[in-house]
Specification:
The chain is mainly alpha-helical and 113 residues long. The chain has 6 helices and no strands. It has one domain. The chain is globular and about 40 Å long.
């Protein structure tokens, strides 16, 4: 999925999870795809304020909620380390699109992990 934002295009999403054998690459790749879809939606819909951005990140967060079951089925889970990495990448996305004042806890407010 191609994104136009060069900062995003050159970013290694979920890098630390890919580097840790506890997290299966095929599931982490699905998480990366969720984040890239979020970027594509931000570019397409161009949210004008934080409320609009949070609506988009809510959808992506709910996709991670579903992905949690895949982590568990593969003998892994979205635990503290993974949670921090995912939240950090949500924060990166917000910043990359000019929402430096986004609250990370609001970006992932719908999370169940």
């Amino acid at each position: 999925m191609a994104v136009k934002n060069q900062q995003v295009a050159g970013y290694s999403f979920l890098k630390a999870l890919f580097e840790d054998d506890y997290f299966p690459d095929q599931v982490v790749t699905r998480g990366k795809e969720i984040l890239l879809r979020l970027c594509a939606r931000i570019e397409a819909e161009q949210p004008s304020d934080l409320a609009a951005l949070y609506a988009l990140t809510e959808v992506a967060t709910e996709e991670f909620n579903v992905l949690e079951a895949e982590f568990e089925a593969a003998g892994s889970e979205i635990e503290t380390f993974a949670r921090e990495e995912i939240c950090e990448d949500f924060g990166f996305v917000a910043s990359a699109y000019g929402f430096d004042d986004a609250d990370i806890s609001e970006l992932v407010a719908a999370r169940e992990w």
